[in-house]
Structures are given as C-alpha cells and as structure tokens.
Design goal:
- By secondary structure, the protein is an alpha/beta fold.
- The relative contact order is 0.14.
- It has a domain of 314 residues: Trimethylamine methyltransferase-like (TIM Barrel).
- A five-stranded parallel sheet has the order 9-10-11-13-15. A four-stranded mixed sheet has the order 2-3-1-12, with helices on both faces. A three-stranded parallel sheet has the order 6-19-18, covered by helices on one side.
- Helix 11 runs parallel beside helix 12.
- 45% of the residues lie in helices and 12% in strands.
- Helix 5 links the parallel strand 9 and strand 10.
- The longest helix is centred in the middle third of the chain and has 22 residues.
- The protein starts with 19 loop residues before the first helix and ends with a helix.
C-alpha cells in the first residue's frame, strides 16, 4: 500500500507557471478532445476495462468524460514513498522534495573524442555503478543505455538484472509486452522475497509512454496494467512533439498530451484503486527544418512548467525531463541547453527529474563526460535553490562587529571552520590564478578524475546468497548464459 509523505519544509513553495484560468482552459480542451475524438487503446483488455466501468467505447476508441476521469484521479495518492532496498534511498514523491534520475533510453555512446558507437550491456553496468556511487540519485536502473548486442527477449531483463546487482537504490523497470514484463516483475520481486512481498508497497517505477497523437500501444498498456495490478508505481509520460505528433502551438500540444496522460492514469486506478502514479507529461517540439525532435529550445522548459501546473491541479506527483539537449557532442550548446532544462524542472517544483545526467542528441546518445558535467549542474542547482539560512549564527553580526570597518574575514577562525561547508565547492571548475593551464584541458582532466573517483567509490550492494541464486535462475530461464551473468558483476 502506498504510504503518504509529509510536505517537505524547504522554504518558499515553487511558483506556478500557469494561472488558474490557464490551467482550467487546458483541462477543458483535453476534455473536449476526449469527448469528440476519443483515445485509441491498442490493447483489447484495456478497452474492455473502460467499457466495464461504463465508459463509451467504439472499437479501439474510449471516450471517458470529465466526471469519470476526475473520480478516478481522486483515487490516486497525492504522495507516496517509492521504497528502495536500502531505506536511505527511499523517494518520498509528492511531498515537495526534489529527486533526480540519470540518462534513460539512449541507444548510443559518444566518446570523449566525439566518436559514436552503439551502447552495450557493459555501459548499463558502468552507468549503474556511477548512479549508485553518486549522491545526486536515489533511483537506478531502467534503460540507462540500450544493450544493443543482446536479443530483444533478453535485453530488458538484463538491464533490470544489472541494476539489481549494482545498486540498492530505488528501481526503474523497463516497459515491455505482458510476457516479458511479467518476467521483469519477477526479477524485481526477488530481493523482496517474491511477488506478494513486492506488492506490499511501491518498490519499482515504470515509465509508460503514449503513441501520440491520442493513442497508446499494446506494450505500454500491458506494462501499465501489470505494474498497477502489482501495486507498483507508473509514470504516464506522453511526449507529443509540437508540429508533428501534436499541434504546433504549445497550448494545443499540452492539451493533447494531457488528454493522453489522464486516460493512462485513469486506467491504473481502474486496475487497482489507489495505485501510485506520477503525472509524467513531457511535451516536446519539432525542429521544422528537419522534422526531428527538438528538446533544447525554449519550448521544453515552458512545457515543463505547464505540466507541473497541471499535475498540481490534479493533485499528483510530477516528473519532467532533465539535462536535455539537441547537441551531438559535449559542447557549449549541450551546456546551456542542459542547464536551462535542469533548472526548469527544479524551479517549477517537479518531484522527479528524469534524463538528468548524460543525455545528448535528444535522447539518441549518452556521454560519460556529460554525465559528470551534469552532476556538477545538479549539485550547483541544489545549492542555488536551497533555502537561505538566516539564523543568528549565519547573520554573524558579532563577528562583523569584531572585524570592523576595513578589516578582513579571511584570517578569522570562523571562516576556516566554515570554509568547506558554507560555500559551494566545484569539483570541476577552473578557478584561482591565471596560470593553471588551458580551460579545456583542465576541465577534461577534472572530468576524468571525477568519473574514476565515483567508479572507485562504488561498492557492490548487499544481496543475500539466496537472492543471487534466484535472480540467476530467472535469467537462465530467459536464456542468459554464465558469461552474461558474470559480465554483469565482473566488468
């Protein structure tokens, strides 16, 4: 059962990107779309579930009305704890605290010299270790990098297995068809003692994407139904592209994506009332010069703010994209685009910021160098948005009086005591004298050192011998050989 979380005491609440009337108009437009056009569900069981609850259907189309949808959303928890094997990494979602998640879905790796290669299972393992070692993250797994060398029947389970062996943080799953997702749930349940134990609380999260415009495919709906039935969390995450899979106007794109999101969220409640869900609309735009997706422009942060306002309207936790960029390599462009997108999620009060480290080329590639640079951005944003301490010690009136006009604070004992905690200390930035060498060379060396520091800090999490045995048994049943199982723990 989902456990509600108290509201975090983290200073002033986040502002809203939309006025109440703007939110109402977007909501009304979504209701109009569903009434006039409906939404296609390419899963007969999902259609039957809506039909059995009195929703008008026409073949694959469902037409839920406003009263029905709002009643279903009211069943969803406004907040819940996503439990990790190590309770220190639990995520209290919806209580005002912000969480970050790393790269997701990338099929390629861009090396430091700009060369591009297909990602492999070894990349999944390395990234899972970096995520485990970084204090920026409390959730691991999912498609950190696609293992292109593995057959489809084994790739998704192998990613989950890799995460379970490298990390005791909260767990991302990988959506799939009903047969494979059942196998993934079986893997996820092993460390908890089986499926019945897993179902006692939200202990895994699955991203459910729509197939814009106005439809969900069978695989997404099967994963959604099975996850909700098992009591596990889903983030329903439409990604309409303004200009191709959604209207070019951002308001129209948001209204369409919101309609998709609400139907997915409602289905989770129909399967299991009270199922933990996240409002996950991540609307994007189209580069009209090429027809490709565009995530690095102004439309992404604007739509992030709007999605958060809609999530607040429905009383649900929210997720957004993170360090998104259209840049093909680590560059000034990747820096400014990622910084704006990361800051947008944090500034608007998003609960879970995904794709927060390592992403290049609009999800088409990842970079280890950018992963480390994005960790620096996350750390800086957290420090910049942290509530300012204004207590007696921080005001330092007595100290200022002792130093007096024209004095210096640099040599004071108080300054020495606070020097490693009060200011934000960068692990990467070049500061100080001018003769420290070229900036690019300094930064590249600092990134390499920080990546190696995290890898050296990684330690295999505790996992009972019987759990290791059962995980390996499931993987062998799915076709994994000894070499694959060993590669995950010996890389």
């Amino acid at each position: 059962m989902a456990q509600a979380v108290p509201t975090a005491d983290a200073g002033p609440s986040a502002p809203s990107a939309l006025s109440p009337s703007q939110v109402e108009r977007l909501h009304a437009a979504s209701m109009s779309l569903l009434a006039k056009t409906g939404l296609r569900l390419l899963d007969p069981q999902a259609v039957e579930i809506f039909k059995a609850h009195g929703v008008r259907t026409d073949g694959e189309l469902v037409f839920p009305d406003e009263a029905f949808l709002l009643a279903r959303l009211a069943q969803a928890p406004q907040s819940f704890v996503l439990e990790a094997r190590n309770p220190a990494h639990d995520l209290a979602l919806g209580g005002g605290e912000r969480f970050w998640a790393a790269a997701y879905g990338c099929p390629a790796v861009v090396e430091a010299d700009g060369r591009r290669r297909s990602s492999t299972l070894a990349d999944c393992v390395k990234l899972a270790r970096l995520v485990q070692a970084s204090p920026c993250f409390k959730i691991n797994g999912g498609i950190l990098a696609q293992p292109n060398e593995l057959p489809p029947a084994l790739a998704a389970p192998a990613m989950v297995y890799a995460a379970l062996r490298q990390s005791d943080k909260a767990l991302f799953l990988v959506s799939s068809d009903a047969k494979q997702f059942s196998q993934i749930l079986e893997l996820a349940a092993v460390p908890w003692g089986g499926l019945d134990a897993l179902a006692q609380a939200p202990r895994a999260l699955t991203l459910i994407s729509s197939l814009s415009p106005l439809q969900f495919d069978r695989r997404a709906l099967e994963s959604l139904r099975l996850s909700a039935a098992a009591g596990q969390a889903v983030s329903v995450s439409p990604g309409p592209m303004a200009g191709t899979t959604g209207p070019l106007t951002l308001a129209g794109n948001l209204a369409l994506g919101n309609a998709e999101c609400l139907v997915g969220l409602a289905l989770a409640q129909l399967v299991r009332p009270g199922a933990p869900v996240i409002y996950g609309l991540e609307a994007t735009a189209t580069d009209l010069a090429s027809g490709g997706v565009c995530v690095g422009g102004a439309s992404s942060p604007v739509q992030t703010g709007a999605a958060k306002a809609l999530a607040a309207f429905y009383g649900l936790p929210c997720r957004s994209g993170g360090a998104l960029t259209d840049a093909k390599t680590v560059s000034a462009q990747s820096g400014w685009e990622s910084a704006v997108n990361l800051l947008a999620g944090a500034f608007w009060g998003v609960d879970l910021v995904i794709h927060a480290a390592g992403v290049l080329d609009a999800w088409a590639a990842l970079s280890y160098e950018k992963f480390i640079l994005d960790l620096e951005l996350i750390d800086l944003i957290e420090k910049a948005l942290a509530p300012l301490e204004v207590d007696e010690a921080a005001l330092a009136v007595e100290l200022a009086a002792e130093v007096g006009p024209g004095g210096t604070f640099l040599t004071r004992r108080e300054t020495a005591r606070q020097a490693r905690s009060a200011p934000w200390l960068s692990r990467l930035a070049q500061r100080g004298p001018r003769d420290t060498g070229p900036t690019a060379e300094h930064l590249a060396a600092a990134v390499r050192r920080e990546e190696q520091r995290l890898l050296d800090a990684w330690r295999a999490p505790e996992l009972a011998p019987e759990a290791v045995r059962d995980l390996e048994a499931v993987m062998r049943r799915l076709g994994a050989d000894r070499a694959l199982l060993d590669s995950v723990v010996m890389t």
